[in-house]
Amino acid sequence: MTDEYIETKIKNVSIEDIGSGFYTLRIGEEITHLEIKAIRKITNSQKTDNLAGVDYKYIIESTEGKILVVNSWVLWKKIAAVLKEAGKIRVALRLQHTGFEQYSVNLLP
């Protein structure tokens, strides 16, 4: 295939296009406000970033359209405990990764 057969599309990029669609939560980082829109369980035995010992991970989508990939059992268990206590999925959370396998998850008003 030569260049003459490739359809070219041009789009102007704005500053909003540069932003990341993903949250990160490395040691020392925090997400001050994550309002949950949906949680999905993604199953794929071929993926290397699944939760330890299983063939799945959880994907949390915020109301802003950003994604948090949860592939740590410690973090997932803390999130699940807060959601069970709230009695619903659509809540706002504050998450902190304070150290190796140490997370803080708080329900926001």
Write the layout of secondary structure elements.
Blueprint: H1 15-18, E1 30-43, E2 56-62, E3 67-70, H2 73-86, E4 92-99, E5 102-108
Antiparallel strand pairs: 1-2, 1-4, 2-3, 4-5
Tags for this entry?
single chain, 109 residues, alpha+beta, 5-stranded antiparallel sheet, globular
Describe this structure in words.
With 109 residues, this protein is α+β, with helices and mostly antiparallel strands. It has helices at 15-18, 73-86, and strands at residues 30-43, 56-62, 67-70, 92-99, 102-108. A five-stranded antiparallel sheet has the order 3-2-1-4-5, covered by helices on one side. The protein is globular and about 60 Å long. The N and C termini lie far apart (57 Å).
Secondary structure: helix percent:
10-25%
Give the strand content.
Answer: 35-45%
User: Gap between N and C termini, in Å?
Assistant: 57 Å
Cα gyration radius (Å):
18 Å
Outline, from the CA principal axes?
globular
Low-confidence stretches: none
Major sheet strand order: 3-2-1-4-5
Q: Oligomerization state of this entry?
A: single chain
Mean pLDDT over all positions:
90
Number of strands: 5
* H and E string: HEEEHEE
**Class from helix and strand fractions:** alpha+beta
Task: Enumerate how many helices there are, as a single number.
Answer: 2
